[in-house]
């Protein structure tokens, strides 16, 4: 049964995020399967808020089942999560609960005034994912390691916010902080009308620099990860940074065009990153794991 539910989690990450799936595909078992489970649960949390009509649970039901995990039934995620905590007893429940708290925030707080507010939100919905992944990706911890994992998650969420400006407007959400818009003299009216001009480009470029700053902080101690985990983390960061390049290549029109990283670009990123790890991991073995 465990093999079946882990396969179902893998299908969720395959369908939901090819970048995330490919980045972590070369991890050894059971680290790889644990990443799939974490992604699948976070996907359910996210969908319960963004697409409640299609979600098998409300955010409140997910939280209640998670709090009573040993009794939770009715979906493959529950035996998968129980397997996750048995396999990684150092994993804490707090980041999962904070993640749900962040998603709940989307129901009541939809317009941000400051970068500080946005970064707090990004910690809840994405920095916590970094905290979840750390006990899976490495066997040690510490405040410095925790801070880097959180930073990577925050950076990735900033990328999501830049990419999804148009989609979020349709949901009546504005994550771009008002202070950033005012700094570049770009109005809320222009935003709702989907105006792409030099001022809007300046807004996104500022957010891009913030995202890249978080990535830089998140990769500061990458050499302390087990090599396969370090490679996976670097790939994930590079794939997400590639989305920023796609946004720029598309003229920053995030209202009418969803930016993505092509398979060709992912292959180039993979080859470039793998080259630095090949001597440690063995090129043929590592490449086979990421196919």
Automatic annotation (TrEMBL):
Pathway: Carotenoid biosynthesis. Transmembrane segments: none annotated. It comes from Paenibacillus agri. It holds the Pfam family SQS_PSY. GO terms for molecular function: geranylgeranyl diphosphate synthase activity; squalene synthase [NAD(P)H] activity. Keywords: Carotenoid biosynthesis, Transferase. This is Phytoene/squalene synthase family protein. InterPro entries: Isoprenoid_synthase_dom_sf, Squ/phyt_synthse, Squalene/phytoene_synthase_CS, Trans_IPPS_bact-type, Trans_IPPS_HH. The keyword Cell inner membrane does not apply. GO terms for biological process: carotenoid biosynthetic process. SUPFAM superfamilies: Terpenoid synthases. PROSITE patterns: SQUALEN_PHYTOEN_SYN_1, SQUALEN_PHYTOEN_SYN_2. The keyword Transmembrane helix does not apply. CDD domains: Trans_IPPS_HH.
């Amino acid at each position: 049964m465990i093999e079946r539910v882990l396969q179902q989690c893998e299908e969720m990450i395959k369908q939901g995020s090819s970048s995330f799936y490919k980045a972590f595909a070369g991890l050894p078992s059971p680290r790889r399967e644990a990443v799939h489970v974490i992604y699948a649960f976070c996907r359910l949390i996210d969908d319960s808020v963004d697409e409640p009509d299609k979600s098998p649970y409300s955010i409140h039901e997910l939280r209640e089942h998670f709090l009573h995990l040993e009794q939770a039934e009715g979906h493959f995620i529950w035996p998968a999560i129980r397997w996750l905590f048995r396999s990684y007893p150092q994993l804490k429940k707090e980041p999962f609960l904070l993640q749900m708290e962040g998603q709940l925030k989307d129901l009541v707080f939809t317009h941000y005034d400051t970068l500080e507010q946005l970064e707090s939100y990004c910690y809840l919905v994405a920095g916590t994912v970094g905290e979840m992944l750390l006990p899976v990706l490495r066997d040690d911890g510490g405040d410095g390691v925790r801070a880097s994992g959180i930073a990577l998650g925050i950076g990735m969420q900033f990328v999501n916010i830049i990419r999804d400006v148009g989609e979020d407007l349709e949901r009546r959400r504005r994550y771009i902080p008002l202070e950033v818009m005012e700094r570049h003299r770009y109005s809320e009216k222009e935003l709702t009308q989907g105006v792409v001009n030099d001022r809007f480009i300046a807004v996104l470029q500022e957010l891009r620099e913030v995202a890249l700053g978080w990535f830089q902080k998140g990769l500061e101690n990458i050499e302390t990860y087990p090599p396969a985990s370090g490679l996976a983390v670097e790939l994930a960061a590079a794939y997400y940074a590639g989305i920023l390049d796609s946004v720029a290549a598309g003229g920053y029109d995030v209202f009418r065009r969803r930016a993505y990283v092509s398979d060709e670009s992912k292959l180039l990123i993979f080859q470039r990153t793998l080259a630095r790890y090949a001597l440690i991991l063995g090129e043929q073995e590592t490449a086979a794991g990421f196919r």
